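Usage

Read records sequentially. Each one opens with the input sequence:
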Amino acid sequence: MNRILLRAAICTALTVGFTVHPASAQDGLKVYISADMEGVVGAVTGDQLGPSGFEYGRFRQFMTNEVNAAIAAARAMGATEILVSDSHGNGENLLIEQLPSDIQVVRSWPRPLMMMEGIDESFDAAIFIGYHASTANTEGVRAHTISSANLTSVRINGIEMMEASINAAIAGDFGVPVVMISGDDATIEEARRIVGDMEGAVVKWSYGFHSARTIMPEASYDLIRARVRTALGRLGDFRPYRMEGPVELEISFKNYMPAELLAYLPIVERVDSHTIRFVGRDMTEVSKFIEFTTNYAVNVTP
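and closes with the structure output:
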């Protein structure tokens, strides 16, 4: 088709109210986006990651922009419903007034499904933005699993887990595949090794726990858009990451006391001085138990 005919075809399509998508776009997709912050472009220390950090305000903007890049790409590929989970720190990081008016956001804690709250069988795909490596990984910027202050290991069915694989397994309970992840190079490598095939956007390369070589913010947005489009363009290639029940969870704490006290519960076995074991029917039940262990305190309010 020559240029004149192509232009006429596009004008006709627009006139009758159609949207022109790439050939691989799938209309009516429902997409879940879980967003963390340690894996956001340029983030390396606490200076960027919490309200007391002098760069936190700027990096909330970068996090929001990365999420918006993923949203824009998902829409370009036919997504009509998008739910975003603000999954870092206090769960109140995204600048929600800058997100599209027709999406919804999950904020703050606790949540039964943790970083995946709100996901269900109706979603077609999950996307992870700004993720990081596990506490067992010797590489990766700000590498930790769930709580850098309290946990040294999280294993499920004998597998050393990262947040991305825990969350992929929760999504797997509902038959939803994780199709794309962004973060540093160690994060993408670890996620693919545990979960399997997914598109990866490497926005920085780890030199250590608090150092990295990074691309620039605008480049990260372009890269995320490209990887999301590619992922949703080959949606049929991905499979949910499923943990067959019963699901055995082992958590190791930095301190003795949490393991000692949790072992008072008849559903908990103390494996060693710092480690407990819990067996759940599925990942949904395991998720609730993890959320309890990492959030409960007798003086919790209100």
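Summary fields computed downstream for this record:
- The two ends are 66 Å apart (CA to CA).
- The helical segments are 3-15, 46-49, 56-76, 163-173, 185-195, 217-233, 256-262, 283-295.
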